[in-house]
Amino acid sequence: MEKNLTDELFFIIMKFLREEKYEESLHNLEKEWGMFFNWKHFEDLVVAGNWDEVESYLSAFTKVDENRYSMKMFFDIKKQKYLEALDRHDRHGALDILTKDLKVFESYNEEIFKEITNLITLQNFRENNKLAGYSDTNSARGIVLGELKKLAVMNPSIRQKMEFPNIETSRLRTLLNQSLNWQHSQCPDPRRTPDVKTLLEDHLCRKDPLPQPSSSTQRTTTNGPFKPIPVPHPIPLPTSENHPTVSAGGSGFGPLANPAAVSKHPGDSDVVLRPKLQSLPQRTVLLRSDSRKSMNAVVSSVDEVPRHVGRILVHGSIPTCLDFHPLKQTLLLVGTYVGEIILWEVCTREKIASREFQLWHGDFCSMPLKTTLMKDPTIIVKCVRWSPDGTLFGVAYSKHLIQLYTYPGGSDIRHHLEIDAHVGDVNDIAFCSPSKQLCVISCGDDKTIKVWDVATGANLYTFEGHAAPVYSVCPHYKDNVHFLFSTSTDGTIKAWLFDQEGARVDYVVPGRACSTMKYSSDGK
Description:
The chain is α+β, with helices and mostly antiparallel strands and about 525 residues long. Helix content is about 25%, strand content about 25%. It has a four-stranded antiparallel β-sheet with strand order 3-4-5-6, with no helix packed on it. The radius of gyration is 30 Å and the shape is flat.
């Protein structure tokens, strides 16, 4: 049996156990199978404060060091368990939790572990300023539960296992009934009223002493255990109404065949076990322009704006940014809400490669970054950008970092550089070559713009002068002069040369609205 059918069989068995109220067996199967994370059961365990079972259930799906979301989930659970022991004045139990459960986190963040250790010396841990708002146990569990839900939805080991498929009531019994009907239809001498005594072996009728029914007579009675054997119907092929494609291809993509004859690709169909975050779309919609116009044509009027859907690419999470390859213009790089990057071949809707966020050199990252990720491991891709020749691309994240990848071609994506660039979000990046050497420019919430050597990661320039977080950067050159525009969230636009002389232009946008600057493809 193929894996997807095996998985469906497990879901059907779980549905049966739920209908028959075998709750303990159901949850044991969830843990042993590891393909469905029952959030309602997990929530009940947290609200009841059954922390040992909470950890046991979570451990069936992920481990402490599997990713940063898992680490934070286990930390929050053990920390709450520790605080509740202190609140009960059970110092012996609290000390046991500290030395056996929380000790493992010391190597990841020594400062937080020391702070937690100091709580046991206080008469009341609420004397710690950060815990002064801790009211009662039930309220604290509710807060922890909210954080755990947020982390679970972002956790790549859990997020696609949180939804149970829609299965009709008594589906297992229906399948058994259909099987018995088929077995009965194969009997050499089928009885009018079948007598099924066991499911442990195939059904076979004994010879019926009564006259056999004609071929036009129904084999089962209305009071019998079987339903009439349904006449099989051909499975309808998908049409343009229920298939997420468009029958006519867009310019540059090539024409599409009839949607009914198009086979599905990995990015083409909706995934059942996928959480929906904030009711936002988890797909990239590409608009199709007039086939008579070039892909690079400049839009000169509203009537020329593309109005028809050319492709729909379905993601596992909310897309946040995208950039087409400068040379192979059917390659699309997409960043997502959960820190994942995905490379698509738009023509075939094939997901060529994907990478989930991870620190490449955790031992060398700054303490502010380590502390930030320990307190809140959620991370969002803010910007993806190809280099001018398409052999390199950069990824800007919502916490401090830029990561640069080399792209030789195909599905080959390789680590190149990791830069701890800004304090807070890195909002935008761009490539330029001001001194015949390729550089990457970054801007962030710390109100600065920085220029980095792509080969070494060295910081070449730091531009300061914005009074608000810098939202976007736009490098350009004209008459062999390289310069840079930047915009900030207070509506200020500044222009810079690649020197240390400060901004050359300072302009405030009417309405002080945040804006992004881009040059047209002809540079005019």
